[in-house]
Every structure is written in C-alpha cells, then in structure tokens.
Amino acid sequence: MAFLRSGEEGGRKLAGEGVYLRHPEARDYPAWAHLRGVSRAFLAPWEPTWPEDELTNASFRYKLRRYAHDIRDGKSYPFFVFRDDHTLVGGATLSQVRRGASQAGTLGYWVGEPHQGRGHTTAAARAVLRFAFEDLGLHRVEAACQPENAPSRAVLAKAGFVEEGRARAYLKIDGAWRDHVLFAALNPRD
I want to staple 180 with a disulfide (CB 3.0 to 4.6 A). Which of 11, 45, 170, 189 is the partner? Predict the structure, then answer.
C-alpha cells in the first residue's frame, strides 16, 4: 500500500501534507464530540440534520461498529483527519465504493470550524485520492457540494477534481432537498 504507513499506535495511517488520516477509534470520542459540538452551527448548513443523540458516546460506538463492517466489506473507508501534532481537525470518507465496470467511490469530508481555511481539508482530500487510486485501484472518485459552498468548491478544485455538472435536489441537507455541483477526479494511471 503506497500511502498507508504504520502508525505509532499500531494502526495504519494515510500520510498527507501536514496531516495524517486514520480510521476512527473509541479513544477519539472526546475530541470528536467536542469538535463537532463547537462546530455544530458551522456544519449545519452543509450536512444532513443531526439526530438528537448525535454527540453521545452510544451513537459514536454505533458509528464505529458500522465503520468496521463497511471497511471489512470494502464499501466505505472513513478517516479522521489529524494535524501532525495529533489534533483532530475533521473527517473524510471514501464511501459507496463500487467495483465491476465502475471502479468508483464518493468522497465526503468535514472540517471543524476552528480549523477551517488552513489547508487541512485539501490535504486530506488529496490523501484520500491517492489511497483510492493507488491502494484501492479505483478509476474515479466523485464528490458533490452545494453551489454556494465556495470553500468546499475550492477544496475540490485544489485537490484535483473537475466540475462535471449540477444535480437538482440531490441530497437532503439541513432538512431540505438541495441542489449540488458534481465533481470527479480520474485515476491518472488509467
């Protein structure tokens, strides 16, 4: 695996530019709950409505079980994004991995409000692309964001995605069906 390296904790990590990514673990709960909590108003316009128990430890443990199942089945690869000083700054997930003729997946990501605008999300998106193309052998990675989300559009452009079009009422975000701009990156080796 070209971009995974052994972590100090014995796990595997994706290396990025000033960040590293690894799968979420139970010990991440306090930092995750805090960062998501202080970023709630910042994230709400861009994410599905949170369930009432979103920030509970029980909900987090459920997510970990679901993540483990999806990783084992090769369907989804969730990562938490950390600065090199081990501070949690956000998350990125390669989901909806499709094999066969498609060989594609979908990138989603978030960054905590205190860490926005510092390049962490772009570095994470680039690391996930390398993982998708070089480690998983995917041909295409797709992503989408709301048209008015200029920072997210910039992240995707800087990470190497190309805008491909617009999807009307694409995802239910913050309680309403929202249009999204569609992006994709292709494996340069294909």
Answer: 170
Contact between residue 24 and residue 76 where contact means Cβ atoms under 8 Å apart: no
Task: Tell me the pTM.
Answer: 0.92
Cα 51 to Cα 3, 41, 62, 169: the distances in Å are 34, 14, 13, 21
Structural domain of residue 25, as residue ranges? 4-186
**Structural domains counted in the chain:** 1
Average pLDDT along the chain, 190 residues, taken 10 residues at a time: 44 88 97 98 95 97 96 96 97 98 98 97 98 97 97 97 97 95 96
Structure tokens at 11: 């796990």
Residue 131 DSSP code: I
- What are the pLDDT digits (tens) for 140-170? 999 999 999 999 999 999 999 999 999 999 9
Measure the CA–CA gap between 125 and 58, rounded to whole angstroms. Answer: 28
Lookup: tokens for 86: 């081990």
User: What is the CATH number for 37?
Assistant: 3.40.630.30
Strand 88-98 versus strand 140-145 pairing type: unpaired
Identity of residue 134: E
Which among 103, 99, 105, 188 has a CA at the least distance from the CA of 144? Answer: 105
